[in-house]
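User: My collaborator sent over this chain with a note saying "see what the structure looks like." That's all I know about it. Can you take a look?
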Amino acid sequence: MLTRALTILFGLLLVSPQAGAQARKGVFQKGPLRKRQEARRARMIDRLNNMTPEQRERALDRLPEERRKRVERNLERYNELTPEQKQRVQRSARILENMPPEKQQAVRQVYRRMTALPQDRRIEIRREVNRLSRMPAGEREAHMKSSAFKSRFSPEEQGMVEELSNLFPPR
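Assistant: Without extra context I'll predict from the sequence alone. Here is the result:
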């Protein structure tokens, strides 16, 4: 369930209109404006869910068709979550929002690379990151060096697990 919640969260965060516009222009702002944009992006889920259907429709109409469809699918999936799962998504959004911009970008880059993997592998990676987040640092490191870990994940997947586990704090 957590993997589904994280998928929805990062799906919504990856399709931010501001991020898409900046990427097309090749411009990545720094400083207070950038931080405000990151904070807005992390609250997108709540904003869209708190809108009336008419307001949501107008907001979504501003997006390119493909992005709009992704956002709508992710909103539907989010709305199917239990209240507990929604809280986890919101907690993850707050964690991401409180990360420095470089770490936020690193998380997004890993999740973009993960989209090229089959769904079953993405799920396994998320489960492993979740498992690692409950381990102390030394235990994490030993686990990632183990033959069991290396036999379950390709070198590329191992890199993704390591990057994400280093970016997210232990619980």
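A starting point for your reply to your collaborator: Confidence is low (pLDDT under 50) at residues 14-31.
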